[in-house]
Predict the 3D structure of the following.
Amino acid sequence: MVWVKFGFDWQNLFVLHFPDREYAQQRWMWFAPHVFSSIVWWNFAWIQLIKWIRAKHIWLHRLNGRIQVTAMMGQIITGIGLASGSPTHGVKMLSIAYGLAMAYVLANTIYYVRVKDIVRHKYWATKLFGYSQAIALQRNQVYFFAFFASTLLGDSPFWAVAPSSSMEQRNAESRDMFDDSFSMCIFTAIVLTEWYQAADVHELLEYRVKDVNEKNGLPPLQQPLVG
């Protein structure tokens, strides 16, 4: 799938006609290492989530972790580089903010494993993996929001592009679809990650409530307002 994506992006940059050829060439300088880092991440990051590998082959978990940290750093740096050249100001600001957020999460992931706080390391590593789903979710956002939701509203960009449409109109409509789906995919990845981790937080709160109840001599079902 990653190689298919690479092929489509190559076509978008060099095969299709762009009015600003210089922009495409400058973008390629960031695009190539960004895709390479993505290939490494998406092909090997899932290994970190397998419990029996972490338990029985900790050396593999640590080695792959170092590789994934390097790959994520590459994605963050090149992603911000790509964002800096975006012609859409909203996407540029959102992309840079997303890259900085990913850098913050990555920094915490590295910090807590270095101080051997495995519980917090797992928390931030899970958040890192969840946030990184954003671009993968963009394909779903294109199909769902650009086609389904926009069609219900009677203003689908799919219907606006006709065989007789000019290249400028096609580029404008395609850019709108990209901007809308890009914004929603980042929002969706962050929200789904926080909802997923809320289950762990809820479990921790249950333990905290029981502990407070025991200290205050309260029945297990009676929860104090302030712990």
Q: What stands out?
A: The chain has a mean pLDDT of 76. Residues 55 and 61 are 9 Å apart (CA to CA). The chain is about 80% helix and 0% strand. Residues 2-212 form one domain.
